[in-house]
Amino acid sequence: MDNALRELYQEVILDHSRHPRHYGAMDGASHKAEGYNPLCGDRVTVYLQLGADGRVADIRFEGKGCAISQASASMMTDMLKGRSQAEAEKLMQGFLHLVKGEDASDLSEDDRETLEVMGGISAFPMRVKCATLAWHTFKNAVEEGAT
Amino acid sequence: MDNALRELYQEVILDHSRHPRHYGAMDGASHKAEGYNPLCGDRVTVYLQLGADGRVADIRFEGKGCAISQASASMMTDMLKGRSQAEAEKLMQGFLHLVKGEDASDLSEDDRETLEVMGGISAFPMRVKCATLAWHTFKNAVEEGAT
Amino acid sequence: MNAPANIKIFDAERARADFEILSRQVYGKPLVYLDSGASAQKPRIVLDTMRDFAASEYANVHRGVHFLSAAATDRYEAARRTVQKFLSAAREDEIVFTKGGTEAINLVSYSFLAPALQPGDEIVLSVMEHHSNIVPWHFLRERQGAVLRWVDVRDDGSLDIEALDAAIGPKTKLVAITHMSNVLGTVTPLKDIVARAHAKGVPVLADGCQGAVHAVVDVQALDIDFYAITGHKLYGPTGIGALYAKRAHLKKMRPFNGGGEMIREVSQDRVSYADPPARFEAGTPPIVESVGLAAALDYLSGFDRAAVAAHEHDLLAYAREQVGQFNWLRVIGDAPGKGAILSFEAEGMHAHDLATILDREGVAVRAGHHCAQPLMERFGVASTTRASFAMYNTRADVDALIAGLAKARGILM
Amino acid sequence: MNAPANIKIFDAERARADFEILSRQVYGKPLVYLDSGASAQKPRIVLDTMRDFAASEYANVHRGVHFLSAAATDRYEAARRTVQKFLSAAREDEIVFTKGGTEAINLVSYSFLAPALQPGDEIVLSVMEHHSNIVPWHFLRERQGAVLRWVDVRDDGSLDIEALDAAIGPKTKLVAITHMSNVLGTVTPLKDIVARAHAKGVPVLADGCQGAVHAVVDVQALDIDFYAITGHKLYGPTGIGALYAKRAHLKKMRPFNGGGEMIREVSQDRVSYADPPARFEAGTPPIVESVGLAAALDYLSGFDRAAVAAHEHDLLAYAREQVGQFNWLRVIGDAPGKGAILSFEAEGMHAHDLATILDREGVAVRAGHHCAQPLMERFGVASTTRASFAMYNTRADVDALIAGLAKARGILM
Ligand SMILES: Cc1ncc(COP(=O)(O)O)c(C=O)c1O
Ligand SMILES: Cc1ncc(COP(=O)(O)O)c(C=O)c1O
Question: Are B and A neighbours with ≥3 CB pairs closer than 8 A?
Fold first, then answer.
């Protein structure tokens, strides 16, 4: 198998996609948004419980999609939980840079390490949308998704 | 000047176009039609006096146009005057064949001789419409132009 | 599109050589192009004809008396006659050049249907239509209160002709139906459909964007009212398509785009329109593209079409058989006599992942909803993977697809 | 389009060599192509880029994840950015690809104006508009009761800007004005027009089909709402054009053609639409043509545009001076700062006869109403003869025109 493919479909990714974390609807979410990829028809719903301080107290997602979008959503929920809005925004920007193959050095070392498995996507520009769908949906949920 | 051009703009043609015969409106025409060439915006009006037997008792035309269309209209009025409908139809078909460079052998020898000067048009397919405008208008006048 | 018993020979390898792009590599692997359903590659003769024409005979058409303009006009009108012949239309003025299949269908909507449409009027269409044969009718629903009557397909993807017949009622103004589904490959019985619709006084529009590529079309024999084609799937250029429409319809239809060439007279207060087809060809048309389309149709017609169809049918049958070995793969669309398109869903593997892995093997397939979302809904999927076969494909291409699928399974599962 | 005092040098002879067709003969005489106003010839780089792209990187755009589809999508979207840069638009999604200038204007009519138009609403336009910027408004008059307010030109062909200002009233919904007349060569003061219209809250559409060829356009500096261009006059391919529209307008505009690519979601009962520009690009777009257009704009932008304009201006001035010797010839259109188009009427000689004789000398000019019948009426002529100059013309071309005119006079008078 060629290297780019090996990078893309790393075991970590496949594991996340097969066994997504924080999967399923959330009752009583404070925020919620649906994301849609018109290219493939895939949908994802992101549920949030934002604390009074704006922190991501809880987060879940639901929806079908390709391995990349599922893994990305799953990792996102893992990483966002407990973060403040500013931290979440920073993480998201860093992630977007990373998957587009741009400079992601403003990510913390820890985050960079965790997200490294997603770096392979930058070699597949047509798939970047799959990876960013959940993140954009998260942002929408925060900004316009108060329930 | 090249031969095709010389053929096209023969003295007879230019004379007809400069001094068109039967030019001007006709009071009390029994039939009348207006022709229009959308390519150049030229117009021609053909006036007829058809006898009880359907003969072209009188014919006149009016309108502006290129040398070819003017000469063609002028010659047409010259030739049609006095003809029966069947004769007119036959002459028109022969003329259409001639200017398209097709077989015009069903024209009478006299008519062929008269019309020969128009034969040069067949080398200029983009100008055939100029030559046929008056004739089509004549036909329209007969068929749908009763006043 | 069944192969007749006694067919002439079609040499796909030889045809292949006419398509320069097919000898290229991607990621160091030979290109296996199985995406002709989205757009076909173009043979050398099409590319060369267009370039030569543009480099030696080009000018704007119709309005000029000069040499190049006359030459270009001749080529453009000759292209119209080539399309006329290709579709067996009775008259050349029944062919309107458009920018593609989508515009051809929109032209029918804007110029034929919209002007007289009343709220409650119905349009009958099938669930397997391409968005190009759906959205124009949704416009009429949104804007003028039309009602869309959807006809289902059976589980094998074949059209339910009785359901279609039943859907045609006194308020039906048009049956809009694909000739061949771009997802299922299903070929519809157009002649039967037209007969049933005409029996109730309803005209029929066929979306022939796929159908005309794989079958010989005779619009007179079909007695069809409208038939839309697109150049780029017919081995021709982008930027051009055509609508066949019966003369009687065209004469009554109002213009769509307004501009040069489509008028008779314009003044400050008044406007009158040219006769068809000019009335529907506002502005400078796709001149070079018309010449390219004619070259493509001539190229295609240069083969024995039945032999080409038999070749494509063989590829489909072979592919169908090969994928049968994968019990994790569900083919969507198995109608009898279907065209050379194979759509499928793979258990636990998303179409986009499959397509990405196949791509790295050099195998180009489509993944997605194929602009047929109502059909996806019908089959309960968000997307499918689609391999579509053209005259230049071979069994080796199928083998590459099969090997790629096995590999994808290994990676993803 | 006046040449600035200090211009770089433009070598027309060298540019000429880029256009293969210009070295051909007609009737044994060298081609003198003075019909670029109808359609320009295309440089080798445009023809080669299109052929190469089609032969090596072609596939349908947007929907595919495979290599060729990604490559083609990149090229298509890069072409959009090239147009953006060419017009100095703020954002790439303000550029909508169309099939030509005519469709770009119709898009504004169907998607921007028609949906909200009330009977009695007014559209202001000038008498020198091309039919493509007239007939769409006549449609709105015929179909929805719009009122067309015509603005006259002065006897020299210049726009009467005070009359235009006066014509804009409380019911005006759009000012639709050419940037450069295809008959008179008149260049309109767009910036001034936009300022006056905006002062009354009225948006402005410029027909830039001619203007963008001869002048550098900055839609942001103009603050214009809509600007239409067409590929084939810009030394690019047929089958493509573009509309620039302000993002704020595009976002509110409803779709025009319905089909693939322009939707967000389609079901049996509902449809939602993609964001601009996709919303207005239904169906497979003119992919190869977009790549060709980008090559043409790159080619044009590779020159110092002011130097090209100065060259064209020199040709016009020279031609103007040369025809001055013929007292039987009346030039129509002498506005200050006009572009390189020379229309005239010759006493006792019809435009078609002139054009035929010139053609036999190898000189290609247009004869007719140039799709501008209201303007013909304004100047009391049925048709004119028109010589239009492009970057590749030279003074020798003008000399050939002049010699041809003298000859025609000899033959006809
Ligand atoms: C069945 C069908 N109809 C219509 C179309 C639209 O054709 P185009 O995109 O060329 O306008 C397509 C292809 O995209 C198609 O497959
Ligand atoms: C001023 C003007 N506007 C509009 C058009 C229409 O452009 P197109 O025919 O390319 O659609 C033309 C050219 O024909 C033109 O000269």
Answer: no
Interchain CB contact of C412 with D (< 8 Å): no
Q: Where are the beta strands (DSSP E) in D168-225?
A: 172-178, 204-207
Note whether residue D36 is domain-resident.
no
Task: For residue C327, count CB atoms less than 10 angstroms from its CB and return exposed for 0-12, middle for 13-18, buried for 19 or more.
Answer: exposed
Do C214 and C339 share a domain, yes or no? Answer: no
Q: How many helices (H) and strands (E) does chain C have?
A: 15, 17
Residue C54, chain D, CB below 8 Å: the answer is yes
Confidence of residue D312 (pLDDT cuts 50, 70, 90): very high
Task: Please name the member of A5, A14, A40 whose beta carbon is closest to the beta carbon of C360.
Answer: A5
**Strand order across the beta sheet in which A56-62 lies:** A31-37, A42-50, A56-62
List all residues whose CB is within 6 A of at least one atom of ligand 2.
Answer: C 259-260, 283-284; D 100-102, 130, 132-133, 178, 182, 207, 209-210, 230, 232, 241
Residue D5, domain member (yes or no): no
pLDDT, mean over chain D: 96
Whether residue D156 is found in the same domain as residue D211: yes
Q: In the predicted model, what is the mean pLDDT of residues C208-225?
A: 98
pLDDT band at D7 (very low <50, low <70, confident <90, very high): low
Ligand lying closest to the C-alpha of residue D283: 1
* Three-state DSSP class for residue C214: helix
Domain of residue B62, CATH code:
3.90.1010.10
What pTM was estimated for this model as a whole? 0.96
Catalytic site residue D371? yes
- Which residues on chain D are in Cβ contact (under 8 Å) with B1? 407, 411
C-alpha of residue C132 to centroid of ligand 1, in Å: 6
Whole-number pLDDT of residue D275? 96
Q: Is the pLDDT of residue D1 over 80?
A: no
Domain enclosing residue D388, as ranges: 12-30+304-412
Report the DSSP beta bridge partners of residue D177. Answer: D206
Of the candidates D371, D374, D399, D403, the residue annotated as catalytic is: D371
| Residue C135 pLDDT greater than 70, yes or no | yes
* pLDDT of D14 above 70: yes
In this structure, the answer to whether residues D26 and D157 fall within a common structural domain is no
**pLDDT band for position A1 (cuts 50, 70, 90):** low
Judge: D69–C271 Cβ closer than 8 Å, yes or no.
Answer: no
Binding-site residues on chain D for chain B (CB distance < 8 A): 27, 350-353, 356-357, 360, 367-369, 373, 376, 382-383, 407, 411-412
Domain span holding position B55: 3-144
pLDDT at D199 over 60: yes
Whether D42 maps to a domain, the answer reads: no
Residues C20 and C165 in one domain: no
Same domain? For C220 and C342 the reply is no
Q: Tell me: the pLDDT tens digits for D64-103?
A: 889 999 999 999 999 999 999 999 999 999 999 999 999 9
Q: Is C151 on the interface with D (CB under 8 A)?
A: no
Amino acid, res. A29: A
Q: How many domains does chain B have?
A: 1
D136 and D222 part of one domain: yes
Domain count, chain C: 2
Average of per-residue pLDDT across D209-231: 98
- pLDDT over threshold 60, residue B118: yes
CB neighbours of C232 closer than 8 A, spacing ≥ 6?
C39, C40, C100, C238, C240, D60, D284, D287
ipTM confidence: 0.95
pLDDT in tens, C228-267: 999 999 999 999 999 999 999 999 999 999 999 999 999 9
Tell whether omega for the bond before D286 is within 30 degrees of 0, i.e. cis. no
Residue type, C366: R
Query: What confidence tier does D3 reach under pLDDT thresholds 50, 70, 90?
Result: very low
Q: Is D259 exposed, middle or buried (0-12, 13-18, 19+ CB in 10 A)?
A: buried
Q: Which of C103, C256, C261, C284 to mutate to test the pocket of ligand 2 (most atoms within 8 A of CB)?
A: C284
How many CB atoms sit inside 10 A of residue D19's CB?
22
Centre of ligand 1 from the C-alpha of residue C224, in Å: 19
State how far residue D251 is from chain A, nearest Cα, in angstroms: 18
